[in-house]
């Protein structure tokens, strides 16, 4: 009999991130409660997700602002531009939700610039003029944030900013984003909620693939749902580089426990040093679902019963 395929709903890698939704408040509450003694602490609400992303991003950006790179010159060795990536799911795939989330994340970010008493200027680069105009009306009286669409960013605007972020860019804009990032060197740049699936990056080609890969993920929270033959479980793929520390902060896959003392609570089922591919997540979850299926359990019960009689331990 053919096995039932494992599905992820929503698929956090093959769909644009902006279409992902946070798990329900009830589910998120069980996540935080079950991991109170664990260093892995996914958010319990939309506000907490924004707070986590905002905190780790500001800590990460503060370092290059305190220790700015020198402008490249023939006499100086080329230094790596600080590049970071943040992924926070939003509730709806529409312009107002994206702008609202961005305002909560970037507006009034607690940053300081070494040798200056003024607040650093954050340039937000939007994928379209309409989104840029909407953002200008939504970021109320925040003089430390400038707005432009990617296609209209002038040299004067780039020079006036201390750091920049590309918000929900399309894959078709990558070459233009790479050129703008180069013009912003040595200033830090952020890639926020890129509007392509992680698996798509394998098809970007060597140059664009290396460019996208040069952005260090400081925060990523993606909900998923696993459907097996007889059950449905929810989970998350999560990374949080707290305090801007990249080393030692890997990726975790968590799902709801189906039995035992932790039934209904989220538990870590796998850890990765790098972002797991969709195939790796599917393998982890498929093996987990198969191990807990009634068919597999009945086979294990028979094997254990036979072992008690023969004294020989069998393995599946």
UniProtKB/TrEMBL annotation:
It comes from the Eukaryota. Residues 43-283 form the DUF1995 domain. GO terms for cellular component: chloroplast. This is DUF1995 domain-containing protein. It comes from Apostasia shenzhenica. The lineage of its organism: Eukaryota, Viridiplantae, Streptophyta, Embryophyta, Tracheophyta.
């Amino acid at each position: 009999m053919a096995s039932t395929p494992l599905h992820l709903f929503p698929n956090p890698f093959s769909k644009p991130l902006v279409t992902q939704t946070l798990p329900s408040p009830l589910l998120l509450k069980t996540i935080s409660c079950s991991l109170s003694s664990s260093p892995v602490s996914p958010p319990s609400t939309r506000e907490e997700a924004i707070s986590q992303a905002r905190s780790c991003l500001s800590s990460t950006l503060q370092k290059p602002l305190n220790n700015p790179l020198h402008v490249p010159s023939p006499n100086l060795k080329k230094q790596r531009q600080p590049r970071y990536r943040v992924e926070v799911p939003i509730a709806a795939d529409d312009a107002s939700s994206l702008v609202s989330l961005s305002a909560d994340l970037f507006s009034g970010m607690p940053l300081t610039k070494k040798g200056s008493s003024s607040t650093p200027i954050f340039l937000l680069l939007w994928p379209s003029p309409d989104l840029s105009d909407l953002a200008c009306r939504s970021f109320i009286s925040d003089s430390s944030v400038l707005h432009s669409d990617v296609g209209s960013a002038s040299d004067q605007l780039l020079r006036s900013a201390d750091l920049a972020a590309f918000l929900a860019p399309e894959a078709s804009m990558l070459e233009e984003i790479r050129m703008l990032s180069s013009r912003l060197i040595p200033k830090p740049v952020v890639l926020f909620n890129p509007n392509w699936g992680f698996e798509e990056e394998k098809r970007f080609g060597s140059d664009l693939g290396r460019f996208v890969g040069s952005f260090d993920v400081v925060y990523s929270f993606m909900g998923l749902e696993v459907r097996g033959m007889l059950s449905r479980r929810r989970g998350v793929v999560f990374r949080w580089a707290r305090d801007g520390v990249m080393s030692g902060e890997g990726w975790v896959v968590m799902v709801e426990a189906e039995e035992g003392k932790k039934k209904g609570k989220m538990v870590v089922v796998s850890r990765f040093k790098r972002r797991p591919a969709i195939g790796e997540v599917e393998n982890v979850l498929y093996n987990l679902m198969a191990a807990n299926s009634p068919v597999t359990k009945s086979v294990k019960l028979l094997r254990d019963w036979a072992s008690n009689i023969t004294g020989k331990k069998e393995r599946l």
